[in-house]
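Table S2 (continued). Query chain:
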Amino acid sequence: MKVAIYLRTSTAEQHPEKQEQECIELAKAKGYIIAGVYLEQLSAYKQIDRPKYDAIKDMARKGEIQAVIVWA
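Corresponding output:
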């Protein structure tokens, strides 16, 4: 199964490296193929436009990926 990894941080002080590593480890453990890792640094409340998130949704619509991995 092809997946995308989506990471979002709200501030420059947050560092997504741990999130990214854990998501990659999960994908590998499940035998998933990682189509890409997408990182956005923006507030979920203040900014409505999320270009990378929109790109992932487009990939899903086209059948290029079957799932999205996020870290909560």
